[in-house]
Amino acid sequence: MAQSILAEQPADMVSPIDEVLSKREEPEWHKPVIGRYHASQLAYCLRRQYLDFVSPVTEYDSDGARKMWLGSVIHKVLENEILPFTEDSFTPIAVEKPVWYGLPNTRDGMIVGRFDVLLMDPSGELAIMDVKSREDLYYVDKEGPGEHDVRQLAMYQGATRIEKGYLWYVGRRKGDDLFYRQDLKKERFRWMVAQGSLLHQALKLKELPEMCPQYGWEPRYCKHRNRPECENCSLNGGGEQ
Ligand code: SF4
Question: What's the whole-model pTM score?
Answer without folding.
Answer: 0.89
